[in-house]
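Action item from last meeting closed. Structure (376 res):
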């Protein structure tokens, strides 16, 4: 071959690249097998005429990267979508999944290389989405695969509380997303009790095993702490935001072994931080005895801040954070399991001051709430 040229074609790793050699009168394709991903190669071709070799013709090329295929959105609900794909023959280092949010922002998620699916959560109802998936190989990314989908609709797209969430057909107790003041830019994960007394209850406090420390400061109680599937305090700021936007009832459920009692209040409100999260409640009925009405009108106190200005700090003396007065008949944020007088998780009108209640839940729902026909 005299004056010939060499060229690499079909560079992606599958099918194998071909080396194409051409001379003035002919063209030859020769497939190269067993090449590695994203690797630089140099191929050289010489012509052979009798015992003589022609001058070499060389080409340098880089093999490509194989990305995922067949990206699809399946099992699309109003708030979730399952993305599935076919992985490359050789699993990548990782995947990069991106999707646009309704607010115009791009959400980016890094996924392990061996995965073939991922569920998107926290999506907005009746909203169109587009998602892109790339394979990551070290510093390199494959071209994106994309898919589009639209989430389903809900009766109340952005529920303000668990009462509105129940109108969406949620009939079992579970973690749900609500939106403060119905604003889709203010999502909040909460636990909804959809079974007790017709359901629709938003749980804002739970004690059950002592695994979460409730002996905390003012800021912790303001912003909330714990795990909403276990023990937690949702936060005084959230309580204020919820109860200033509507009329709410409050319920306390108490359990000790086989015994179970409750206290329910027709009206419940928590003031702002400037008012020290002052408590307002009235209208008791139930089986636990009324240990909360005494605290109505009281400000919230914690170990590092006691706006009451009493001779003693109730929060420090009784190891809790609460709407103390002088000092308490209920102390549901006290020391778990403590039988020291007044310091445990106590509800005086049921078990007195020296018994620490093993299980407590405090919850709220819209005043005058009525369960929908499909509710609990």
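Sequence:
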């Amino acid at each position: 071959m005299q004056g010939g040229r060499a060229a690499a074609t079909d560079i992606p790793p599958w099918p194998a690249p071909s080396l194409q050699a051409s001379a003035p009168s002919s063209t030859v394709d020769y497939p190269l097998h067993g090449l590695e991903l994203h690797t630089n190669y140099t191929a050289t071709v010489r012509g052979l005429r009798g015992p003589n070799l022609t001058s070499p013709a060389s080409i340098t090329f880089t093999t490509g990267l194989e990305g995922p295929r067949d990206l699809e959105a399946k099992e699309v609900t109003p708030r979730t979508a399952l993305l599935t794909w076919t992985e490359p023959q050789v699993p990548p280092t990782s995947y990069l999944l991106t999707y646009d949010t309704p607010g115009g922002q791009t959400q980016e998620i890094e996924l392990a290389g061996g995965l073939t699916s991922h569920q998107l959560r926290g999506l907005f109802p009746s909203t169109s989405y587009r998602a892109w998936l790339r394979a990551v190989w070290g510093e390199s990314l494959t071209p994106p695969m994309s898919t589009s989908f639209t989430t389903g609709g809900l009766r109340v797209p952005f529920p303000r509380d668990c009462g509105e969430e129940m109108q969406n057909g949620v009939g079992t107790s579970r973690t749900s997303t609500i939106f403060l003041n119905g604003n889709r830019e203010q999502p909040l994960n909460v636990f909804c009790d959809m079974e007790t007394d017709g359901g629709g209850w938003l749980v804002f406090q739970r004690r059950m095993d002592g695994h979460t420390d409730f002996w905390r400061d003012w800021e912790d109680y303001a912003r909330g702490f714990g795990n909403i599937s276990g023990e937690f305090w949702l936060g005084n700021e959230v309580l204020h935001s919820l109860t200033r936007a509507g009329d709410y009832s409050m319920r306390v459920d108490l359990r000790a072994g086989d015994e179970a009692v409750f206290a329910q209040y027709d009206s419940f409100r928590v003031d702002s931080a400037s008012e020290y999260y002052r408590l307002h409640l009235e209208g008791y009925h139930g089986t636990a005895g009324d240990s909360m009405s005494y605290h109505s009108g009281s400000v919230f106190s914690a170990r590092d801040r006691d706006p009451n200005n009493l001779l003693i700090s109730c929060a420090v003396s009784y190891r809790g954070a609460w709407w103390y007065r002088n000092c308490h008949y209920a102390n549901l944020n006290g020391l778990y399991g403590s039988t020291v007088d007044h310091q445990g998780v106590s509800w005086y009108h049921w078990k007195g001051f020296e018994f620490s209640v093993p299980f407590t839940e405090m919850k709220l729902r819209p005043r005058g709430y009525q369960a929908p026909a499909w509710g609990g």
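Note appended to the action item: The first strand starts at residue 5 and ends at 9.
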